[in-house]
Design a protein that fits this description.
Layout lengths: L1 E2 L1 H15 L3 H15 L11 H9 L10 E6 L2 E5 L5 H19 L1 E9 L6 H8 L4 E6 L20 E6 L5 E6 L6 H10 L8 E2 L14 E2 L5 H14 L24 E8 L7 H17 L15 H12 L1 E2 L2 H8 L17
Parallel strand pairs: 3-4
Antiparallel strand pairs: 1-11, 2-3, 4-10, 5-6, 5-10, 6-7, 8-9
Helix pairs in contact: 1-2, 1-3, 2-4, 4-5
Length: 349
């Protein structure tokens, strides 16, 4: 099923309002999900809507949060999300970080007691629109075995980075610290497709190609990915006095309770370090240099980080965003949710 970007956002927003979110927070949440879907990152788009609606409807996301920004220094602050929409909280916290970075050159803003915030590249792109560089880190469910371990401890703990160029393009990284994000396995389930045997392990700790048998994910590059997910957990959890490691709440354990997740935005104003226009030109030069590198056998071109999504956005803007038929039927229905996520394992459907 193909749906226009505008129609998809309208469908998302309608569902969230029906579930109980305010119009403002429903608008932001819908915008972040469309941002993911239009880039082909379907694991963080439409397929998540029913889960969010069930948690909202059951009280696990505060629909009337008392958002507060506490400035703790000239370039530091903590955004108190009060169990509210992670999307709205992360966006508002990034807005505060942008203000401080413009004034003082650097900003480090933590977000505490938030719910899930989707594709975190959205927030780094906020900063890029203001000619700033941004790094965002956030916690997630404990579903990854540490290197050498058999039981999950950390989450996929993603990292996003973005920087502006002189020609409007964005060099952008948004990656889980696992070989693959959990949402990609959910998407494989929804399409009844197999997964590579390097992504995850089953209940016995053996590699699996069946997304329905996944019991834990694997860190990227073994001990290196393990170290990165530890770093993310420290900076977005322990640093903010929040639950950490395997104490982080599951998305599915109890949809009536707030999740108390953490996130960290680091924003840098290039103008405080070098000439801004030269910086942006050098980002453009980097992009062009990478594109001009001789491709290896089997590759047609070297892409700079984030460039591969440009063609996806263009194609979807032209022909509509591809949505799984079952998910589309849910989106256009009057059903808020089907009570299928509450008190499931971290590896629920």
């Amino acid at each position: 099923m193909r749906v226009t970007k505008e129609k998809l956002k309208e469908l998302f927003k309608t569902k969230f309002i029906k579930a109980g979110l305010s119009e403002e927070h429903a608008e932001i949440t819908a915008d972040v999900l469309v941002f993911a879907d239009e880039r082909g990152i379907h694991s963080h788009g439409a397929m998540r809507v029913e889960y969010y609606c069930e948690r909202i409807a059951k009280g696990g996301i505060n629909t009337k949060p008392n958002f507060q920004f506490e400035k703790t220094g000239p370039s530091t602050g903590v955004f108190h999300a009060d169990g509210g929409s992670g999307f709205a909280a992360a966006k508002a916290a990034m807005d505060e970080a942008i203000k401080m970075a413009k004034e003082n050159g650097v900003a480090v803003v933590g977000v505490e007691n938030m719910s899930h915030s989707g594709a975190i590249a959205y927030y780094t792109h906020q900063a890029v629109k203001e000619d700033l560089v941004a790094l965002t880190l956030c916690q997630s469910d404990p579903m990854v075995v540490p290197f050498g371990g058999a039981d999950p401890y950390y989450g996929t703990n993603p990292i996003a980075f973005a920087a502006p160029s002189s020609d409007g393009r964005v060099i952008s990284l948004d990656m889980a610290t696992t070989v693959q994000a959990w949402g990609k396995i959910l998407y494989a389930r929804s399409k009844n497709e197999s997964i590579p045997d390097t992504w995850a392990v089953d209940a016995e700790g053996n590699p699996t190609t069946d997304p329905h048998k996944v019991n834990a994910l694997l860190p990227i590059a073994g001990p290196k990915g393990y170290g990165l997910m530890m770093m993310v957990d420290v900076l977005s959890g322990i640093l903010l006095g929040l639950p950490f490691g395997n104490k982080v709440s599951s998305m599915y354990s109890d949809l009536t309770e707030y999740r108390r997740l953490g996130q960290l935005h680091v924003v840098i104003n290039p103008a405080f370090f070098t000439d801004l226009e030269q910086f942006k030109q050098n980002i453009t030069n980097t992009m062009n240099d990478l594109n001009n590198i001789k491709p290896a056998p089997g590759f047609s071109q070297v892409y700079f980080p984030g460039q591969n999504l440009d063609a996806v956005i263009e194609e979807y803007n032209k022909n509509g965003i591809e949505i799984v038929d079952d998910i589309y039927e849910y989106l256009v229905s009057d059903v808020v949710h089907n009570n299928k996520y509450d008190n499931k394992s971290p590896f629920a459907e």
